[in-house]
Design goal:
Elements (H helix, E strand, L loop, with lengths): L9 E3 L9 H14 L6 E5 L13 E13 L6 E16 L2 E8 L2 E2 L8 E2 L2 E3 H19 L28 H4 L12 E2 L36 H27 L1
Parallel strand pairs: 2-5, 3-9
Antiparallel strand pairs: 1-8, 3-4, 4-5, 6-7
Helix pairs in contact: 1-2
Length: about 250
């Protein structure tokens, strides 16, 4: 997961993070809202107290569980990237105005023995795609616009991220974002965690095994064939004896 990251235009979701500003997110969000020509004004705010599935009446939730971000340890200055940055949105439309509160969950350095939780930085493309999907969710929840899974953009852009996700150093995982990521009436999962078709895994090196259909044969039926045959033979024997007796007395 750790690697040296080249300098680029990265922004954080926190106005308190070094070199980051919430203003960039708000400006892009305002542009996205203007593009869909909504009558009510919408604002975007940061709120580091948000909890998944803990909503006030009238609020809706959108959880982004796969966003590409980078981190820098404030102690050892180690940098790493993660494709599983969790971002939580709560949104509401009331009193002629829309409000969105967001929280980008932090991660800790796995090298330091007592690390701090660090703010994620996102590149411009990730922010654009993420806010595009956020606006679609607003249109779906509050303006009854039908949104298809294909309308949502994949937020994880192409990048080389080595190593598995370290849930022990992820603030979102520790607060239950992953364990509570099942769809709920007031929340949505991101497209890759939406309902997926279940596929039967293929076994390599083997041909598909077909279960034979069992067709009942006459020998497997419940009709007592053997008993009927015995009775028939017995009757033929009796008939033969009677015929013999009849012929014997007729000659005499």
């Amino acid at each position: 997961m750790y690697r040296h990251l080249e300098a680029a235009n990265f922004v954080t979701a926190s106005s308190l993070a070094p070199g980051g500003t919430m203003r960039t997110w708000q400006d892009i969000f305002a542009e996205k809202i203007a593009d869909v020509h909504l009558k009510e004004p919408w604002i975007l705010q940061e709120d580091d107290t948000l909890q998944v599935h803990v909503l006030e009446p009238g609020w809706k939730e959108f959880v982004q569980r796969r966003a590409l971000g980078r981190f820098r340890c404030s102690q050892c200055l180690q940098e790493w990237s993660s494709a599983k940055v969790h971002i939580l949105f709560h949104m509401c439309r009331c009193l002629g105005q829309g409000t969105v509160r967001m929280r980008a969950f932090r991660q800790a350095c796995r090298r330091c023995p007592d690390p701090r939780l660090e703010e994620a930085e996102f590149n411009q493309e990730t922010v654009e795609r993420l806010l595009h999907n956020l606006v679609l969710k607003i249109l779906q929840y509050f303006y009854h616009l039908p949104v298809q899974p294909s309308d949502l953009l994949e937020v994880v852009v192409d990048a080389q991220v080595a190593g598995p996700h370290n849930s022990a150093r992820c603030e979102g995982c520790q607060l239950g974002i992953c364990s509570k990521s099942r769809p709920a009436p007031a929340s949505d999962a991101w497209k890759p965690l939406m309902a997926k078709a279940h596929h039967t895994p293929k076994r390599q090196g083997r041909r598909p095994h077909a279960t034979p259909t069992h067709h009942p044969s006459p020998s497997n039926c419940n009709f007592p064939w053997k008993r009927c045959c015995c009775i028939g033979i017995l009757l033929l024997c009796v008939l033969a004896v009677l015929l013999f007796i009849l012929l014997y007395f007729t000659k005499e």
